[in-house]
Amino acid sequence: MGQAWGFDRYGGPEVQEFFDRPDPVPGRGEVLIRVEVAGVNPLDHLLRSGLVDGLDGGRPFPRVLGMEAAGTVLARGEDVNGLEVGDPVFGFALTGGGTYAETTVLSAPNTARIPAGVSATVAATLPVAGTTAVDVLDQLGLPAGATVLVNGVGGGVGLAVARLAIGRELRVIGTGSTAKREHAEGIGVWFIDYTAEDVAAAAQELVPGGFDGIVDLVGGTSLRTVAPLARDPRNVMAVGDASVPDLGGRFVERRVDRENLERSARLALDGVLAPVITAVHPLSEAPAALAAVENGHTSGKVVIKVA
Q: Do 120 and 138 fall into the same domain?
């Protein structure tokens, strides 16, 4: 038996609970891992709320929270290639296993070995933030010297996008709340505080001719405020708001396979994709870890150290 933290029905934080469960049995194309570190993401509370139930794997309640983790392979299901028992790995629990737990199952095609020199803590941040940054910037395809606006730069994905963009020699301007300024400016972002100034006016002052690319991580009204600042509307790339084609922009095409995980790990090893980890919680503090992300009060990446 191992401890896990999840939810017994769809809803708000009141449906969350700790519970004990037997080690899951890996099915076809899955690996059982001992979780060392789990990443915390906004998608976690959206799954709990039932807003994206198509990603929950159809497992019965109670369900374990969490989508990404790093740990050690304990067992393999059928048709698993390239991963062995004892391997340090990181990846996605795309079949609904959850990662806020002592053990869980990961989807083997969406899991990769952790290279020597990359810690489990860093690796646990890469499945969501790292691969999203790679996907967005690959699909924008901006040349060195171009300007990019990261709308909502302060979170784990936003800072990963900014870090990778700077590594590609792009000029990065980012929007966020006052609390997000320090970490954004610390990696070289020109920061616009949306709580203290008019975002559109401040952005136009910094880049009078318009942005070569815009990466939106906020959506809604905020997306519609910044989208006209792009020189070409096709270079407005949204990560969460699927209505962006209505503005002439594009919704990011996500690639969460092993190849993209390995690529993000190499970038982390080279220091190009260095996550800004601002909080590390034990499993017993999982409620506080998710609450901070759900309330939008945290900057950078929050992780849960399980082992």
A: no
